[in-house]
Amino acid sequence: MHQERLAFVGTHIMPHEAGLRQWLMRAGLSESERDDLVQEMYYRLLRQTGFRHITNPRAYMYRTARNILLEQVRRNRVVSITTVQNIDELGMLDFTPSPEDTVSARRELTRVMDFIEGLPERCRSVFALRRIHGLSQAETAQRLALSENVVEKETARGLSLILARIAEGDSDALQAKALTPLATGQVKAGHVT
Amino acid sequence: MSPEALCIDEVAAQWVARQADAPLGAEAQAAFDVWYAADTRHQGAYFRAQAAWAMLGRARVMGAGQVVPESVTEAAALAAPVGQTVSVTRRRWLGRVAGGAVAACAGMGFVTHQVTGGRVALQTGVGELRRLPLKDQTIASVNTDSHVEVALKPHLREVKLHKGEVWFDVAKDPERPFQVQADHLRVQAVGTAFGVRRFDNGIEVLVSEGTVRVRSERLSEVDMTLTAGHMVFVAFDQADARADFRPESVDRALAWREGQIALDNDRLDTAIAEFNRYNRQKIVLADEALAGEKLVGWFRTDQPEAFARAVHEALGAPVRVNAQQITIGETVSAAAG
User: Fold this and answer.
1) Number of neighbours of residue B34 by Cβ within 10 angstroms
2) A88, A70 Cβ separation under 8 angstroms
């Protein structure tokens, strides 16, 4: 079940993370406040027993962020005072899904390939073998003539870089690429993997 | 990101990387537990990193994923199919040597099946995919289990589709229209790219470039013009047919040209039927309750097992494989994972 939840987050939450961060920045949160808030938001998702009730993930995500902000303001912790006036606005955003929001599997797969493609060379090779070709760490190490330790380090480094890209977002590049029909990818169940 | 949080995210990524293959050792596990319990932000960051790692795994199981490349450069190249593969832009497709079945079979058809008088007949077996370059520079890609006859006449390029499916990249020649015949139905193009698949009760026409005209020798009502991105099914015994503008579906339906099957929210039973077109080792769905499960992904037509494995991962359905068939959904054994 944990896999299902991870898949839900990867598909329905992560694509909107950069947008939320941008909004939080405009709302006056500092960088570290934004990071804290995003981590807290994921923590709350983690604590959810299931995601089936979430029909509009993006709206859900913003709502969660808003709740966290409100709580923090109440506890007078972390959040700067300029934020307060913006919190209500966060509650009023229009979350009617746009065509771009509808999760197209192809777009998602393109996105994944794009993340891997964007890695520095050695990292990319490690990710290609491990995540695309499904090789184990040991097999990857052997194939690339690296030690397992290096493979593990490259894996951590690549994952960090990709997480940073998820935080930054680069929708333009992705959307342009999303038009290419032959993204390759893995199967997922139509509802929630 | 701020230095501190970058640190949390980085640490989270490290833990995920360390646990990707095997559980942590006792000592490391204890260290992890301490870190994890220390702060809800750690837990959130760890969850986020796990989700990202899982998301990256979606790139697996597609065609390329099953053939592990021999060299690093190849690995890198295969890591980037997005940039290379692109679209139905047929020229790009033709320009590179398409993977798998196409590459294996390219060029074979013409020589071995050349018949006298400029007439070429080609029959493909189950799972076979052939590229047939014609003398007029047209390229015909003949899909699995198909039978076509091509005759390049002075004023007409004539293709009889007896069975199966063909896609054409037609060389421009206004003097000599290019016509596909399936029973009394005629699909005509001047210079364009399109596919025709023959079913028992009619044909499906997919246009990926240019314009194509569909008519019937028998039913005068059947006369329609399709432009790129359109697809239509025309029954042999009915006059009414409506073309849909679905460029994505057209692209997808033509994935077979690269030896691929593309699923985009297709039902499991439909997907299985599609794989069974290409392979002698048939996939059997033992659990009807799974038939309606929707699936997404790209696969190699000749790797039903990879597909079954993916189904196993996605739906948690048991999969059993032997030389003759692959059984999905039988609860006796849950092997094949």
Assistant:
1) 10
2) no
Segment (H or E) for B177: none
What residues of chain B, 248 to 307, have a C-beta less than 8 Å from chain A? 248, 251-252, 255, 258, 260, 262-265, 293-299, 307
B 219-248 near A (Cβ less than 8 A):
248
The b/e string for B280-294 (b: 16+ C-beta within 10 A; e otherwise) is: ebebebebeebeebb
Quick one: average pLDDT of B131-152? 83
What is the spatial distance between Cα B335 and Cα B32, in angstroms, rounded to a whole number? Answer: 32
> Confidence band (pLDDT; 50, 70, 90) for B77?
very low
In this predicted structure, what is the pLDDT of residue B251? 75
Q: What is the CA radius of gyration of chain B?
A: 25
Distance CA B163, CA B8 (A): 60
- Please, where are the H alpha helices in chain A? 2-8, 14-26, 31-47, 57-74, 84-92, 105-117, 121-127, 137-144, 148-168, 171-178
**Does residue B225 contact residue B212 with C-beta atoms inside 8 Å?**
yes
Reported as a single tens digit per residue, the pLDDT across B98-122 is 233 222 222 222 323 333 446 778 8
Number of CB atoms found within 10 A of residue A141's CB: 20
> Residue B17 is nearest to which of A45, A156, A189, comparing CB atoms?
A156
Domains of chain A, by residue range, sit at 2-92, 105-178
Architecture per CATH, domain A105-178, reads as Orthogonal Bundle (1.10)
Contact status of B197 with chain A (Cβ, < 8 Å): no
Of A156, A180, A185, the CB nearest to B297: A185
Residues in B closer than 8 angstroms to A117, CB to CB, are: 79-80, 82-83
pLDDT digits (tens, 9 = 90+) for A79-106: 444 444 455 555 555 555 554 455 555 6
Q: Residue A35: CA atoms inside 13 Å, Cβ hemisphere, count?
A: 17
CA angle B178, B216, B226 (to 5 degrees): 60
In the numeric block, which tokens belong to residue A190? 């139509």
Segment B117-144 shows an average pLDDT of 78
Tokens read off for B54: 């899982």
What chain A residue is nearest to B18 in terms of C-alpha separation?
A: A152
Candidates B152, B114, B157; CA nearest to B132 is B114
Question: B336 and B309 in contact (C-beta within 8 Å)?
Answer: yes
With 80 as the cut, is the pLDDT of residue A61 above it?
yes
> pLDDT by residue (tens digit) across A143-178?
889 999 999 999 999 999 999 999 987 543 333 322
Task: List domains and CATH numbers for chain B.
Answer: 3-59 (no CATH), 88-252 (2.60.120.1440), 259-328 (3.55.50.30)
B56 and A112 in contact by Cβ < 8 A?
A: yes
